[in-house]
Fold this sequence. Notes:
The chain is an alpha/beta fold and 280 residues long. It has 10 helices and 10 strands.
Amino acid sequence: MKAAKLLFYLLVLPIFIHAQEVDDMLVYEQKEISKYLGSTTYFVLDQFEESPYSLALKAAIEKYWNVTKFEIIDQGTFREYNKDKTKSFATRNYIAGDKDYISLNLFMGGQRGMETRGKILASVKLKHYSEPDEAMLYKIPTYVQNLQWQVQMKKNNEFSTAMDFENFIRKQAYIKNSRTLYILKDHLTHKIDDMDRVKKAYKHDVALVDAEQINQAITKEDTSVIYLSIVAPIKNWGGRNAYYRIYTAKGGETLISYTRAVSSSAPLGVTGYDLKVFNK
């Protein structure tokens, strides 16, 4: 019996430890935010410094980041600096959570046991590992601004717990009512495959667009536009989560934060049910 219990813990416990979600590691305490605001944020490029992702990240940081001083560094410098408790970092290198979903995480250096008990200041899901980088490059400016927005909201004490944040998002939702929601044409499913069906399910202004039109709205900081971002596997892998976020084109604020499982009855993409959720 003891041997069986030991085997259970050896096999199962690491799974539970590894299952620690990034969202569960987010911190809201003012002392953590104050410490961060006094630091320099080191943004970490890909292993290929001239990759499309690295170039897009660098451009977005230089254009939008103003909440702290910042520097842009390579992977070697990150390995050299990351044990320094006075420095902060933003990287998509794996830190914690489900390895299938790649996040841009913001955190202070010098933390031990990051996978299970790290403190993360802000986080945004970039993509599922199966998605090519090219599919999310147009969203990089939003992702960078969203990290900054999360910090600013915590600094302003808009929320101090995860529940406060969720409640704040719900209150933000009214903003969408006076703006046009951009949805990628490629995100439509057989459940809802044309504009007529979209308009029947979604009460407010909506447009079916391509990635370039969303990119233009972000670049122009169009205050009349919000857009849907979906982070999910590229195929309908049953049981895997799809993360639906609606962001403002200007400022990268989160208006809707919604997660559901992908299945044959609730396929990857936009369904009528999803649009009804966005109405709330």
